[in-house]
Amino acid sequence: MNSGRFNGLDWRTAKWAITSQLAQTSSATRRTNYRLHDWCISRQRYWGPPIPILCCDECGTVPVPEDQLPVILPDIPDFKPDASGISPLARHEEWYITGCPQCGGQARRETDVSDTFLDSAWYFLRYPPQVMRRSRSIRR
Ligand SMILES: [Zn+2]
């Protein structure tokens, strides 16, 4: 509308026609802009979906086998971040040291968890077990 020779074109056709004209007159260069960019999706927190990757000195990075999924977070009392910048999970060797499914040697679990970009939809599930534990202790 009110765009000269581009009047009445559907948006896709108009976009192409306008950018073509701008390119022909060297007024602009056509390019694609993506709004999403690379994004770090891990964080050094306790709460979050564990990243199902193991690191083995012999095999490198190894995905956790499907029959061992989901990776369950350990029930630890010190789950809050501290000033060290080290993930709370990295303070629990009994959790992150495990066996390598490929060579049978020792492997380390990923101790970062996925960012809120991935886990915000089920954050509330952190609390039901606490409620259940509390109600059990009240009954005793
Ligand atoms: Zn291995």
Question: What is the 3D form?
Answer: elongated
- Return residue spans where pLDDT drops below 50 for at least 5 consecutive residues: 135-140
Which distinct ligands sit in these coordinates? zinc ion
Count of DSSP H/I helices: 4
Radius of gyration: 26 Å
The percentage of residues in β strands lies in 5-15%
Helix content: 10-25%
| Class from helix and strand fractions | alpha+beta
Succession of helices and strands: HEEEHEEEHH
Biggest β-sheet: strands ordered side by side in the sheet: 3-2-5-4
Characterize the main sheet.
4 strands, antiparallel
Detailed description of the structure:
This protein has 140 residues and is an alpha+beta fold. The chain has two domains: 1-29, no CATH class; 45-139, no CATH class. Helices cover 24% and strands 14% of the residues. It has four helices and six strands; from the N terminus they run αβββαβββαα. The chain has a four-stranded antiparallel β-sheet. Strand 2 and strand 3 (60-63) form a beta hairpin. The termini are far apart. Mean pLDDT is 86; it is low at 135-140. The structure holds zinc ion (ZN). Zinc ion binds next to loops. Zinc ion binds at residues 56, 58-59, 100, 102-103, 105, 107.
Layout of secondary structure:
Blueprint: H1 11-24, E1 42-43, E2 53-56, E3 60-63, H2 93-96, E4 97-99, E5 106-109, E6 113-114, H3 116-119, H4 128-139
Antiparallel strand pairs: 1-6, 2-3, 2-5, 4-5
Bound molecules: zinc ion.
Provide a brief overview of the structure.
With 140 residues, the protein is α+β, with helices and mostly antiparallel strands. The protein has helices spanning 11-24, 93-96, 116-119, 128-139, and strands at 42-43, 53-56, 60-63, 97-99, 106-109, 113-114. A 4-stranded antiparallel β-sheet has the order 3-2-5-4. The protein has a two-stranded antiparallel ribbon with strand order 1-6.
